[in-house]
Amino acid sequence: MPTTTRSSRRVAVVGVSLSDCGRVDGATPYALHAQAARRALADSGLDRSLIDGLASAGLGTLAPVEVAEYLGLRPRWVDSTAVGGATWEVMAAHAADAIAAGHANAVLLVYGSTARADIRARRRTSNLSFGSRGPLQFEVPYGHTLIAKYAMAARRHMHEYGTTLEQLAEVAVRARANAALNPEAMFREPITVDDVLDGPMIADPFTKLHCCIRSDGGCAVLLVAEEYVEDCRKDPVWVLGTGEHVSHTTMSEWEDFTVSPAAVSGRLAFERAGVRPADVDVAEIYDAFTYMTLVTLEDLGFCAKGEGGAFVQEKDRLPVNTDGGGLSACHPGMRGLFLLVEAVRQLRGEAPGLQVRRPDGSLPELAVASGTGGWFCSSGTVVLGRG
């Protein structure tokens, strides 16, 4: 299948922001959406009247209609694609295509969730149910939960390639080390490999620290056409290439538990950007569980298949999840939009914690954000650059 390219206008990210994150007991999800949107707009320096596109998912009966109304927007382009954690990378791809084609000039991607506060206030139970209709009817009766599916895939990788529990634990340790430098991270106390291995078992082989935290929080990203960049407060970060892919929903239809859909979305994104994985300076990867980071690094091409375990143990490897990721910093639900925010901050030199530098001391030139949805069901990958 031939690779498609965008015609006409270039597309840039010009505004990013987080809402209040972590423990936020006094706000609604709508309020976090609005807070993040206002901050991202202020970050861009543009007027809200320019926004003519909105992408949102996960809130309301008619998302993004309800969010648009709450924000006081009347967009002429909308997207409510919902493919789990990969939603926001896929939405960013759709928004970039729409802007390049002239269907919109400025698209706001916005998300907010009070997943932690809702449990604390008993507005919801601790477990998320995807129901038991359709294909899920063949798995739900046997207790095959979302985490169990990831755990089973991790065990397969361990069987096929000799990946160890210590290597998976190293992913959590590195994430916490990054979070320790980030004042916005929810958990900052250092942890060791032994801490991860000795924790309570959740789903074999995952102990508690192999799993993402549960937090509140929101964020927003504003994309615009190139002709508006000169009016912005800061230098643009350009969308260079995107890719998306869906793999399966029923585990029996997944051909290889050791290959995620990022193998396709990543290849497409790099091809369309005209760059190689080796050119990338920093990677923001969805990490609901430690195995996700490891296998996504393989599938994006940062190391060969089966070598992810050794790769995550390398001292000077590619900087990954520089804010602390979903394992330590913030994970209110569909975390994919946070990956884009951190990638942009890194390229701008505005990271609140660990700021990546190239060997010559300059700021990073290229970043990749890759989101995963469901139980490795979907993937979206976005390559961003300063030039």
Automatic annotation (TrEMBL):
Chain ranges passing through the membrane: none
Pfam family, one: Thiolase_C_1
Signal peptide: none
The Thiolase C-terminal domain, residue ranges: 243-386
Protein name: Thiolase C-terminal domain-containing protein
